[in-house]
Design goal:
Length: about 525
Amino acid sequence: MSEKFYITSPLYYVNDLPHIGSAYTTICCDCIARYKRLRKYDVCFLTGTDEHGQKIFKAAQAKNMLAQEHCDHISKKFEELWRLLNIHFDKFSRTTSKNHEKIVEDFFNRVYKNGDIYEANYEGLYCEACEDFKAEKDLLEGLICPIHKQKAQDYKEKNYFFALSKYQDKLVKYFDENPDFIQPSFRKNEVLGWIKEGLKDFPISRRSVSWGIPLPCDKTQTIYVWFDALVGYLSGLLNENEEVKLDTTLQNYWPCNVHIIGKDILRFHAVYWPCMLMSAQLPLPKKVFGHGFLTKDGEKMGKTTGNIIDPYELINEFGTDAVRFYFLREMCFGKDGDYTKESFINRVNSDLANNLGNLLNRTINLVHKNFNGIVENTNSNFLELKEKMEITIKEYENHMEKLELKEATDIVWQLIGNTNKAFNDKEPWKLIKNNDLTKAKYCLYETLEVLRNLSILIYPFIPETSLKIYYQLGLNTLDSNNEWDKLGFEKVNACFKVREASIIFPRLDTKSIKI
Ligand SMILES: [Zn+2]
């Protein structure tokens, strides 16, 4: 049996249609999951939707819909967008599913039995948009939430609390024993800062919220949306026809290898969730990776300012792989990143159309024109490209294991640059003209062999393009579970019989771009 690898995106909140930020996170998850499949891991990539809470209830009301209808509609939209973006997920977890409700009850009961849930009065400030409590010092003047720019409400209720403070020391110990738990490492200090201020018990039930899972010990209240949603990482692991029990989910892929999230929900994943799991006496996830935010033209994106990127528009205009490529190649995964139309067009034109696309096209055309589409290896003494290829594979692996996605593409595009240079220096078209066919064939064979390797390395990033290159090289379909072993020179072919050349990425013309 191959080793398991469990990766999750957040469960996205269905108060509104999916936006570019959710698309970005999910593209990154998909890239990592595809890489792990190449490495023969038994991968489970879970995504899904978080569907309870007052904000969702109100969003449904505003549209004259039942809450469940609204959730079904928006959840479907997420799934559709993931299919458009060629996201290969294995599980789609929904927090309004019956199975989820049962698993949350199991989870709650474990925490309850452990003595970590108690009733008390809560008085404080609450941002309804965050669905979270706020300390006055974290709010702007006039008690305004800095994220949502709306006033935090006075909140007073008799609720059930989770004894978070009890786990403070254990959590610090866990961080010490697992120094890579919070990634990128610069986010760890932020979390340690929160812990230093002292972890406070927090209410995990709401009397005033009807759209939620009833609290098992008091049905007049519902479970707090975060306490419910995080358990979705477990409940979503159930297979069809399996017994709906927490124990069953644990046998499938738990513990999670990495939760990929945006930095805004780091506290829930790096503090609340591990403590909840400790209380339920369950294994903790191995890693939480909090990536940065996207801006557009240097400005924060927001509906009110109209400064947004519509993922559907981007895909319609540029195609799935161009969109995936841009965000993976341009943004440094983990840090904040900025989108501009100019940088998008530059990336596609220079990296995809010119450097990669032209190399493929020129090589295949020469092979057809001069050698009936067939070149065999005419020299077993490979030159510098073989060595460069081997270094590239090693460094690529290194970066991918550390989730340095952009750095992995840097290495790959360096190799593409080197291969273009070698091709131009050797001038195979001149060699053919001078009837130096052995040398010409050797140059073409070498280039095709690099392209074959490249198509494997770019597969996690731009899978459709990768398959197109594979096809043009005359190879059969890339098998994502078996292809890593074929990396390296002369691992497969002593001869290429290429198919017809076709352009994989036409150059984008700034003037004809509508958005
Ligand atoms: Zn807020």
